[in-house]
Design a protein that fits this description.
With 307 residues, this protein is α/β, with parallel strands linked by helices. It has 7 helices and 14 strands. The strands form 2 sheets. Strands 6-7-8-9-10-11-14-12 form an 8-stranded mixed beta sheet. It is globular and about 50 Å long.
């Protein structure tokens, strides 16, 4: 019986996250229909190595945990585009489809529906759950393999679903959907780390590679859905980034209250150095960021883009 339950859990997880889904609900590639091409990738490949200069790096917020990073030379990277759960088990989190924006590459930190819509953007390259190093033009990406948060500390105990589906959410016997790959993007002299839904205490060798990160995109919301406020404080204290950007919070217009998430206002309001952004785009220069002392919070709030 235990073996049968484990197989059932496997099938349910493979279908989405714990639910059987129709074929139409799966994230399938239709890249052959895209009108875009890889000309920008060829240009980046031809022009060569990572720049250490102070060109501008652009970060755009697409709601939830989806961010686009654009290098000084124009190489674009989308991280964690979202979709609704194809199994239907978790309900409607997003009122609209993720925008079909053209990018050079798309990254995904883990195999959960709100992070893995890798075929929604029109990407020349899909690097799903990247571990190790990848370089193109003036961009280097390092994927740090670790584990998803597996014990909910907020009011919504979503990890209780593990027992319902006869799964171990926590390592070492977790299913693949509870793996996580922190993505570190290096460009324009900056190191930008996208946390995904990582556990608060990464392995020592992972934490070592997060030292000297300039910008940390972290899961922060008032419901403490992934990280508690204590976890967030510890991560910031251990990594010491110059800038923290909250993500994975309720973004009115992009996500639904059905996510059970709150916005990040409660946490942000308690921080001493906050920049409240007035639009969905942020431009940074290494020469300015490196001069910053302490940690500043840059909060997009309800500002998100669809293009």
């Amino acid at each position: 019986m235990k073996k049968a339950c484990s197989m059932l859990g496997y099938l349910l997880a493979a279908a989405g996250i714990f639910g059987m889904a129709s074929t139409a609900g799966h994230a399938q590639s239709n890249s052959w229909t895209f009108t875009e091409n890889n000309n920008n990738v060829i240009k980046a490949q031809r022009d060569g190595g990572v720049m250490a200069d102070s060109g501008e790096v652009k970060i755009d917020f697409f709601g939830h945990m989806a961010f686009r990073v654009v290098s000084p030379r124009g190489t674009s990277i989308m991280i964690d585009p979202w979709r609704n759960d194809p199994s239907g088990y978790w309900g409607v989190w997003f009122p609209n489809e993720f925008p079909a924006v053209p990018v050079d590459m798309v990254l995904s930190t883990h195999a959960h529906f709100d992070h893995d819509a890798v075929y929604k953007p029109h990407a020349s390259m899909v690097l799903e759950r990247l571990g190790g190093d990848f370089a193109l033009g003036d961009v280097k990406v390092t994927g740090l393999a670790d584990k998803h948060m597996c014990a909910a500390k907020g009011w919504y105990k979503w990890t209780d679903a593990a027992a319902e589906f006869a799964q171990d959410f926590c390592p070492p016997d977790n299913f693949m959907h509870m793996d996580n790959y922190i993505q570190v993007v290096e460009t324009g002299g900056l190191r930008i780390a996208h946390w995904g839904d990582n556990r608060p205490n990464p392995a020592d060798h992972v934490m070592a590679k997060l030292q000297n990160v300039d910008v940390l995109i972290l899961t922060i919301d008032g419901s403490q859905h992934i990280l508690s406020y204590g976890d967030i404080a510890d991560a910031i204290a251990n990594i010491k980034p110059k800038i923290v950007i909250p993500g994975h919070y309720y973004t009115k217009g992009a996500s639904s209250v059905l996510t059970t998430l709150s916005d990040a206002e409660d946490w942000v309001s308690k921080q001493s150095d906050v920049v409240r952004l007035t639009n969905s785009s942020l431009s940074l220069k290494a020469s300015e960021v490196k001069k910053m002392t302490g940690t500043s919070v840059y909060y997009f709030g309800a500002n998100f883009t669809t293009e």
